From TrEMBL:
Protein name: mRNA export factor GLE1
Species of provenance: Cyprinus carpio carpio
Main localization of the protein described in the UniProt heading: cytoplasm
Keyword terms: Coiled coil, Cytoplasm, mRNA transport, Nuclear pore complex, Nucleus, Protein transport, Translocation, Transport
UniProt region (Disordered), positions on chain: 73-124, 331-377
Amino acid sequence: MHSENLRWETLGALKNSPKGKLKYSPDWLEKGEDILAGCVEVSSLSPLSGQILKRLSPRPRLNTCSLTSCVRDTSPGLSEEGSFPVSPRQISSPVSIRAEEDEQKKAEEIKEAPAASVSSPPAMSILSPRATQMAGCILMCEHKHKAKAKAELSLRLEQQERLVATVSSCESEQLKRFEELMELKQRQEYQSMRDMMEKETQESLGRQEKMREEHRHRMKILNLRLREAELERQRQVEGRERHRAINAIQEEVLQLNQLLQPRPSTQTDSALDHTPYITRGNQLCSQVSEVVPASADGQYPSVEDLNVAERALQEMRSLVRNLQDEVTQAVERKRKEQEEEEEEKKRHEELKAQQEEQQKNAARSAKEKARKQGLQTGADDSTLKWYNALQDSAARCAQAFDELSTAKDTQTKKLKMELQKAATTPVSQIANISGAPLKEAFEKIDKLLSGRPVTSAGKTVSTSQHPQGLEFVSYKLAEKFVKQGEEEVASNHSAAFPIAAVASGIWELHPAIGDLILAHLHKKCPYAVPHYPPMERGTSVEDYQKILGYRVDDSKVEGQDSFLKRMSGMIRLYAAIIQMRWPYTGKQGPHPHGLNQGWRWLAQILNMEPLADITATILFDFLEVCGNALMRQYRGQFWKLILLIIEEYFPRIEAVTSTGQMGSVTRLKQFLETSLRTKQIPAHRSELGSAFFKS
């Protein structure tokens, strides 16, 4: 009865304990509810419950265990069992940690309690078998629930870890998205700042460009103003200079006008009339005075005013010189008349002696002509007619531009000089270097003769600027071609071919130039006709020497070597012209003055009596330059002519040549003998081929 009461007390104690208040339901796991949700604090058994359970246990090993070991086996387990958290939120809470610490302290107190007081025999038999069975069931139930709780706790922990990993992964992704968003915002801010800076830079550049443009505009305006100021200052300086010059001219004119007044001390005043000089002097003084007041009110005389004053001064000086000359002539008139009478007598005597000498020479020439079987001493009538026609044509051309050549005004003089430079400069630049400069010189001359503008010495000029410009240019151009032969070809024989090429091309396009070239050539070198001008009555020796082609300066005739050198240059130029053609004209007609003229010249020269030194020289020059072309053109007839020269004409040349003039004769003889022996006359080494014109 007593043990029954104890069992009920034990059950009542268990019921009233915190664990006995737990509610168990088989649907908790299905509903997903927390098993320990109803427990708000850590539940645990009383320290004496372990001893009671050991006493009720039927296993023998429990009887032999001491209270200390029982306490160690059960109490800690129960305390650990009761120390599990009620919910996962309380696993790491401070309350569960404090409960565990309390349970550990209670277990230590149980260990320290005396074993004898617990293991008293009356306590061993407190519970009945029924209570022991109940306690075992309860214990087994607790173990099951403990294992189930551990499994659920492990599952919960795994779910919690997975949840934490999922949350961590989500948070990591969100962090990445956040970082990407921040980077995007930073890039956008950077881009906006860069756009703003670029916009500001463009605006700044625009402002700078606008400022530069304004600066350039201002500089242009300032430069224009500075130029205007400089021009104004220069105009004032020039005006003051002209003013001073006019004042000086006026002063000199007034002084010269005083010299025009008659002087009482002069013995010849009675024979002179000073009135025209005084009248003209007063007119010139008035003319100068009219341009001087133009400098009043800050104005300056113009260039025209200065020119008027200068012309008046020149005329005044001329008046004074003329008056002084007349005075001087009046003083010495008687003495001069006497001297002139004496000189006239001497001239008459000299002329008479010269005419007698010419008559003797003419008679001697006639006798020689009869003795030499009738060879001509001059050109035939047709050749002379052609020669005179060319000279008349050149004279008419010179007369046609007489107004231009004798112009007095500065502008016309300047135009004349520019036209002359434009005509002669390209001819001076002709050389046998390459074909390109030669073509350039030809085109300049062709443009000038065609009336188109050309540039010479940095200035543009055209024959259309003056009505007589074309005649003037044509005359000067032909004269320059002949002068190049006289000077350039005479010194450099290879220059004959490029000059002849340009001359023949111009001749072909502008035939009038060819006639003028022949006229100038015949005038300076009559042997190019050929023509030996006779000495006419009344012609002085000096004038006759000029007709023959000699240069006479101050009654001094040039030396024979210089004369032969010039004649040789012009004959070589003529021989090159008759065989050369300009390759770019495109015309297919005959040469305007071709090899047939060379054959005519050679036949004509062989029909005339040879002259000492000159005939041998010009024959050698002519055959050396164009002998090859004549050989290819006339073949057998040419060799017959060469044989005639050697057998019949060459002895005549030797007969009229003195011992000191045999150089040219020997040179001609060697050339003829070599050519006849080899039956070949080689082309001149300076002859221009097609490759030259392509260079």
